[in-house]
Amino acid sequence: MKISQLSDQYSVSEQITEADIDQLASKGVQTLICNRPDNEAADQTAFADIAQKAESLGIKAVSIAFTGTQMSDRQISELADILAGNQRVHAYCRTGNRSTKIWQAVQALTDQTKADQTKENQTTIEQDTASQGSNPSPGAEVKKTTAAHCAKPTYTVVIVGAGTAGIAVATSLLKRKAKIRICLIDPAEQHAYQPGWTMVGGGVFDVETTLRPMHTVIPDETTWLKNAVTRFDPDNNRVHLDDGSEIYYNHLVVAAGLEIHWAGIKGLPETLGKNGVTSNYSYKTAPYTWELVSSLKGGKAVFTQPPMPIKCAGAPQKAMYLSASHWRRNSVLDKFDIGFYNAGGVLFGVPAYVPALQSYVERYAIHLNFLHNLIAVDGDNKTATFTHTPAEGEAREVNVDFDMLHVCPPQRAPEFIRNSPLADAAGWVDVHPQTLQHTRFNNVWGLGDVTNTPNAKTMAAARKQAPLLAHNICATLDKLPPSAHYNGYGSCPLTVEHGKIVLAEFGYEGKLLPTFPTWINDGTKATSQAWHLKADFLPWFYWNGMLKGREWLV
What we know:
Its cofactor is FAD. It is a single chain. The chain is of the alpha/beta class. The chain has three domains: 4-104, Alpha-Beta Complex (Protein-Tyrosine Phosphatase, Chain A); 154-258 and 413-484, 3-Layer(bba) Sandwich (FAD/NAD(P)-binding domain); 260-409, FAD/NAD(P)-binding domain, CATH 3.50.50. It has helices at 20-26, 47-56, 73-83, 97-132, 164-176, 196-201, 268-271, 286-295, 315-329, 354-363, 415-418, 459-477, 528-544, and strands at 4-5, 10-13, 31-34, 60-63, 89-92, 154-160, 182-185, 190-192, 211-213, 223-225, 229-233, 238-241, 246-254, 259-260, 277-278, 299-305, 336-342, 367-370, 372-378, 383-388, 396-401, 404-406, 411-412, 444-446, 490-497, 500-506, 526-527. The strands form seven sheets. Strands 6, 7, 10, 11, 12, 13 and 24 form a seven-stranded mixed β-sheet that branches. Strands 1-2-5-3-4 form a five-stranded mixed β-sheet, sandwiched between helices. The two termini are 46 Å apart.
């Protein structure tokens, strides 16, 4: 057993055995802490056996077990209470890393509390002195009050949401200020590379390659709270969690993503994933898309797109083009009647890319139906109901039969965002479109799909936003104004056929913002270079670059 002494009072080690407890007792250890859940490994000594041996030697044994960096504020406080007893403490986990991390969290909390206490006391003294005059009478009592949050967990930056945007901004902050105290709040067990689901539905990726355990992508230098946020209180710099606890911050970053509103279409939740009804907007049903595409030999294939905003505006078309490409390669395309039903009035919002897309619409003989919004699905009878709202005339309902229905559901901000003081009238986090700073609360920021910035909601947008938001927060911490400006960049790799992509890259007001010169890749045309970028490079870059704070191509 190798013991690392972190302070006169506290030491850590890797997993111990019953035999090691005698050595710990000889060193005067009075409390033994286990930071490792049972059954992580087959050769692991159970905590109950450790505790029984420890207590026989007069050592108190306590389990404060967690996985990865998932220590809760309650566990941090529990260790703080133990250390406050001035006993000799030894903690262990698999390698000693978790035991070190939670001790560091206690030290950071203690330092922050002392700093807040000193600042608050100084403020109170100054206020009382001013109220009594510059020379208070001898013996006059000066009240010293402590801010209500001094005894609460306080972080320099709290990030709500550990998706693409949340992880990226955390790693970008750490790149700039390595010792900054960050808390990530997200209840999810899995982290998903969502752009890969289009390729899953096209038979290119296995869905399992798009998922990883959340604890493997959370930066080690941060605290992860596996909780849901129930309420924001920006006037008091705190968020409320679903376990009743409160977390305080100096700066808040909201990266909560958006809500896929399946129930916004009548009958969809009951039939999704069966009866020929599928969607690439869920990892559970993206494989079903490929199952349908690869098994059908003909019939009516319907693809839908709801009103904006949605995550990746090109995704509904991507599913359609990849399906048609497969049927064309297998010489059955002429057996299909393909219809695209779009609630909007154009094929794509940036005109420069429409000619290339239109050529594929014609190649696959796709029937375009604009101003058609899906409102209901009858899976048993394989009927989709749309509201058709023509430019002139009254809206009417249209029923369309199908053999395969790929649905892009309506999307909105999560409920806890919509009903918060951070939201605009439409429910999105209200930020300045350039600096990403909240319009009313200067220490609140937003990025990713949850904000009201008028850009395409894509992973590429978050890739551009994260570094500049990190820069602006760090500037504010250094008492400087936020100086980095976001230009609205977003990217939509439109998979028009197997092996070729139209790489749409654009910013605010549809301005073209190509990453590469046209001699490398002309984004207004379908190219094989863009396909290799999406299929081969971007997934690797996502896991090993973007989520690690490597700000390439920014």
